[in-house]
Design brief:
2 copies of one chain form a homodimer. Chain A is of the alpha+beta class. Chain A contains 11 helices and 15 strands. Chain A has a 6-stranded mixed β-sheet with strand order 13-12-11-14-10-15. The relative contact order of chain A is 0.14. Chains A and B meet through helix 2, helix 8, helix 9, strand 13 and helix 11 of A and helix 2, helix 8, helix 9, strand 14 and helix 11 of B.
């Protein structure tokens, strides 16, 4: 059961003019499952992507980078689940390329205008034949109102589809943003999540797309973790279809650029948090806020040490205020000159530790009360400087072990 | 159930002349449980210690460092379980100091000749009164043949005591080595384990003790991990009682120094591996061997990335050869210029991946056969240089979650 994650509100999944989506069951790994999605973009869209920092990056990630580097206008994406096409060597690259060629031929475009994505089991051979066999039906299914279906089409161990949209005024025009994401395990994006796609009809110069996608990733997907395992396939793609009629945004720091970024970041953050809320086995949603660091990097180190500690995560699962485990994680986070006597720890409004020791006025029942909640904020104050960072994570339950001991079966 | 960890063989737990141990039930946290241990050393022992790198190090760790730095001859140790006296601020330091004073008074020595150790729950107040009340009985119990009792006296979530001993010739004399350790969770020593004590009757100059303890830690406790959580209390203490009559060892690189180190490293490594074999919820013992790195540091990075991955650990638990997860961990280990096409992966004798992709001759049933074993060696060849490192770890089971969701109850 995801933590406070309602099913997508179809009324806010705005069609994005110039972007059509088709989804079919291609039987890639299992039967009777939406597992092949194509995204078709009208000529003239601005597109950028952010990809995993895993050095064992998957074949489709390698091709995405290669195709985006050509500087061509991207026209289509093809996404399969059931197979990650990672750890597949030269053969995997050839298979990803064949997929792009097959779709490009049907659309009358260049293969290098297609971005491929795969997600699923690592180190297994991609069944290109089944993907090719499904492409005609997927293209025939393409429609601007298929965002929910696409969110379903990219799921793996997700328990529910993840999709959000917003509308707002940019440059005097009503602009729409819709996005989808997937992912529940192997989640510690170090660029983006497993898969995230966000589109807007706003007019945005291709020249600022790279920066836009980086900033969106930094403020959302790069701040969540489930199990600390950075995937081989993480990809976030941002599309501006340039149909809304607003003055073209050529700088993110302009008023219009800021307005659009606020809208898109809202969707990106909801999508990223949805992955944590639906984290494998998650029963709680935890925000880890680290304040008072000398710089953002040391705040992140501390936040991730807490968010990755199996002991902290099992204590949250048990609603057990065994909060010394949080102090231990702060201590091994890697700040060499950390002075433990400067540390303050809060659990929501409860002041647990002061000057590195138990707060004399802290009462176990107050900690217990917060630990029982489904949403909890851990706040650590380092007392070293002005920096602050937030990371979102979930707890660690029996169900996580069950899911990952059974994933392939 | 620990993995292939027999109960201590009492016949090999050699008394160490000049070292006596007393153990009692002091009711520190729970009744009817050996929880207070004193170790008394005759005048003239050489002693050194290696302690946690956690910046939130416990009060007793701070005092151990302070007392060893005085250059005095250490005469006693006092060890309690049930309370870690970590995250306890200035009050915790005072309480650790009181404990040393109380023991020193009874023995007629200086408080700074006492090394204190605590292990148990973090951020709770040390009950000094109960410890003091137990000291007389503990001193009365002191005997050279209490090594097994001491191993029992320092247990927390350990399911069985951990103690090993060896004898060998050093400088023409028969020398004995006995050691004990404890620990099962919060295990990713970055100096030593939760608690490890190794004593020999060999004659060793105090001047080489620091280097000896560091080398023993590097070859044993600093190569194991259960859950990646570096404890606040990790301590390894090495004692040479100087009673064996061998020519005093004043250099570790001498023939005698090497001979003694081999003996002591055998005990240290068994003690460290015992902690993994008894790791919380462990059902398998896994050796991660990384070869072909440019240097030891990058080999360790890769080995720990594999050993800490919840996805890899749950796959071992399930005996599921979902081995792409190992490649993913290699990829995010932090080697920026890693070339995935140079990677080879073996599971025991089974060649799973070659040139970064699935080995064409790899058969799932071969991987399955190895995964079902209780002891497994993962071998990754990076193809970048001559360095090699080994890390020992265990799998990740339902039982780990159960233990850590219930530890304090």
């Amino acid at each position: 059961m995801p933590v406070n994650l309602p099913l997508p509100d179809i009324s806010t999944l705005y069609p994005i003019a110039g972007v059509r989506i088709g989804v079919v069951e291609a039987g890639i790994r299992k039967a009777n499952r939406k597992d092949l999605t194509v995204v078709l973009m009208d000529e003239g869209a601005s597109v950028s992507g952010v990809f995993t920092s895993n050095r064992f990056c998957a074949a489709p990630v390698q091709l995405c980078r290669e195709h985006l580097a050509t500087g061509q206008v991207m026209r289509a994406m093809v996404i399969n689940t059931g197979n990650a096409n990672a750890g597949t060597g030269a053969d995997g690259l050839n298979r990803a390329r064949s997929t792009c060629i097959a779709l490009a031929k049907r659309l009358g475009i260049d293969a290098t205008q297609v971005l491929p994505f795969s997600t699923g089991v690592i180190m297994e051979t991609l069944p290109v034949d089944r993907i090719e066999a499904g492409l005609d039906a997927a293209i025939a299914d393409a429609s601007a109102s298929n965002w929910l279906k696409a969110a379903e089409g990219i799921m793996t161990t997700d328990t529910q589809p993840k999709a959000f949209g917003v509308q707002g005024m940019v440059g005097g025009k009503l602009v729409s943003v819709s996005g989808i994401s997937k992912g529940a395990g192997m989640i510690r994006p170090n660029m983006a999540t497993m898969l995230g796609f966000i589109a807007t009809d706003a007019c945005v110069d291709q020249a600022v797309m790279k920066q836009l996608s980086l900033e969106l990733a930094e403020g959302s997907f790069n701040r969540v973790t489930v199990d600390g395992d950075t995937s081989t396939n993480d990809s976030l793609v941002v599309i501006a279809s340039n149909k809304a009629g607003n003055p073209v945004i050529d700088s993110l720091s302009s008023t219009d650029g800021q307005a659009l970024k606020v809208l898109m970041l809202e969707v990106a953050r909801k999508l990223a948090q949805a992955i944590v809320r639906d984290g494998e086995g998650a029963t709680k949603f935890i925000s880890v806020v680290v304040q008072g660091g000398r710089n953002a990097e040391e705040c992140r180190k501390v936040a991730y040490a807490i968010a990755h500690s199996p002991l902290v995560k099992t204590a949250f699962y048990a609603s057990d205020p065994n909060l010394g485990r949080i102090l231990a994680a702060v201590g091994y986070a890697g700040i060499d000159d950390l002075d433990q006597t400067g540390i303050e720890l809060f659990l929501d409004d409860v002041h647990v530790a002061t000057k590195g020791g138990r707060n004399p006025s802290y009462r176990e029942e107050d900690g217990q009360r917060v630990m029982k909640q489904a949403e909890i904020t851990v706040r650590v104050m380092l007392g070293r400087g002005p920096a602050e960072e937030t990371v979102w994570t979930c707890d660690f339950s029996h169900e996580y072990v069950t899911i990952n001991a059974d994933y392939r079966s």
